[in-house]
């Protein structure tokens, strides 16, 4: 069984992913912004552990990495946490996955939450530095991050997942896509070997799709990693 960290697991896609993994017998460590987000006793009994921290704050992101290190090297990390149309979009959606990836021991598998809206994101990385990025921008960048890691880290698979427009607090009750299918793809990529391609995929409901061309462009990937290193002071090995 695998040891898996799921960020943003208090509800929605993250909670569904964590529940599915635990039901399969995996050791799941969940990340939540604070423990009040886990309302019931059962919410902690089923997990291997809980790490807490606000992924909109760089110091707290670093602390989440320190807490996670206490569990040892993870088999898989699912960077599920996300926000939409808030001032902290870029930090939660792009910077936090980057910084956690850079600070934690390399897992065997990495999964990053993308969105179909990344297709209309901008490659203007000045928006990252000044904090003016849109949700679409942040999802383009995190998708490029996932594919950059895939090409750089031998022995670690890395994928991006579009869960669809699903009925979560972010997506709204009227969202038309299947919530279960949204989180099942994340759990599958984190724990199964029968995945083709084995790394560098952009997925929707267990099927690969073609991402924005910039996400696969090595020059843009390098520029993104440089911008994130400048922003955080931490390099990706």
Automatic annotation (TrEMBL):
<comment type="similarity">
    <text>Belongs to the short-chain dehydrogenases/reductases (SDR) family.</text>
</comment>
<dbReference type="InterPro" id="IPR002347">
    <property type="entry name" value="SDR_fam"/>
</dbReference>
<dbReference type="InterPro" id="IPR036291">
    <property type="entry name" value="NAD(P)-bd_dom_sf"/>
</dbReference>
<dbReference type="Pfam" id="PF00106">
    <property type="entry name" value="adh_short"/>
</dbReference>
<dbReference type="GO" id="GO:0016491">
    <property type="term" value="F:oxidoreductase activity"/>
</dbReference>
<protein>
    <submittedName>
        <fullName>Putative oxidoreductase</fullName>
    </submittedName>
</protein>
<keyword id="KW-0560">Oxidoreductase</keyword>
């Amino acid at each position: 069984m695998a040891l898996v960290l799921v960020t943003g697991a208090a509800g929605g896609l993250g909670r569904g992913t964590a529940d599915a993994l635990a039901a399969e017998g995996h050791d799941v460590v969940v990340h939540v912004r604070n423990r009040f987000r886990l309302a019931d006793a059962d919410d902690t009994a089923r997990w291997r552990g809980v790490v807490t921290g606000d992924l909109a704050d760089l110091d707290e992101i670093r602390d989440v990495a320190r807490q996670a290190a206490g569990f040892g090297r993870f088999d898989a990390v699912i960077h599920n946490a996300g926000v939409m149309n808030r001032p902290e979009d870029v930090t939660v959606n792009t910077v936090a996955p980057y910084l956690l990836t850079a600070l934690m021991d390399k897992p065997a598998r990495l999964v990053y939450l993308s969105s179909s809206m990344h297709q209309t994101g901008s490659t203007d990385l000045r928006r990252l530095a000044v904090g003016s990025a849109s949700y679409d921008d942040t999802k383009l960048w995190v998708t490029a991050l996932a594919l950059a890691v895939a090409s750089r880290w031998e022995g670690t698979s890395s994928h991006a997942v579009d869960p669809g427009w699903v009925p979560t607090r972010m997506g709204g009750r009227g969202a038309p896509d299947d919530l279960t299918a949204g989180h099942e793809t994340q759990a599958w990529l984190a724990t199964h070997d029968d995945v083709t391609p084995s790394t560098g995929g952009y997925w929707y409901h267990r099927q690969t799709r073609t991402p924005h061309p910039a996400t696969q462009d090595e020059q843009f990937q390098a520029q993104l990693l440089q911008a994130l290193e400048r922003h955080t002071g931490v390099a990706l090995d």
